[in-house]
Amino acid sequence: MTETVKLDVNGVEHSVTAEADTPLLYILRNDLKLMGTRFGCGLGQCGACNVLIDGNNVPSCDTPLWAAAGKRITTIEGLGTPGRLHPLQQAFIDEQAAQCGYCVNGIIISAKALLDKNPNPNEDEIRAALDRNLCRCGTHNRFIRAIRRAAREAKGSAPR
Question: Which long-range contacts (CB under 8 A, 24 or more apart) does 58-62 make?
């Protein structure tokens, strides 16, 4: 059944008409043209499609449209702009933490969720937060360095 749903995506309200069980990922990419959220596995297991919904890190590929209605959604595009990057985005650049780049947007979203809840995570906490993000390039240690750097620079203190 088709319905019209209001979504707050990156601080902008959108009205979307679609089947209620349409994956949020499809709405973000196809209707709203936000291409930073990537299709990976389609099963909510790889993290490439992660977004924040009301501050919680969730896979958008298995989140139905109805579950996102009326909630605050943040995609990678909502974190910063080319002229003013989010500290995580800048840290990933500075630490050369992206190789192919396919997974990195979901990883940055996962890191943002972590830092919002724990602004000074240790390495084990970072690794646990990224546990559901898959990367085939093997740049995991760079991810850790980038997240620790962002935490340090955002708060002005060294991570544990």
Answer: 60/23, 60/24, 60/25, 60/28, 61/23, 61/24, 61/25, 62/23
pLDDT for 85-125, tens place per residue?
999 999 999 999 988 889 999 999 999 999 999 999 999 99
Q: How far apart are CA 120 and CA 77, in angstroms?
A: 24
71 Cβ neighbours under 8 A, 6+ residues apart:
7, 8, 53, 54
Q: What is the average pLDDT across 68-94?
A: 96
> What are residue 43's DSSP bridge partners?
none
The 72-74 sheet, strands edge to edge: 12-19, 2-9, 72-74, 50-53, 56-59
pLDDT tens, 16-54?
Answer: 999 999 999 999 999 999 999 999 999 999 999 999 999
**How many C-beta atoms lie closer than 10 Å to residue 120's C-beta?**
15
- At 100, give phi and psi (nearest 5°): -80, -25
88 with 146: CB under 8 angstroms? yes
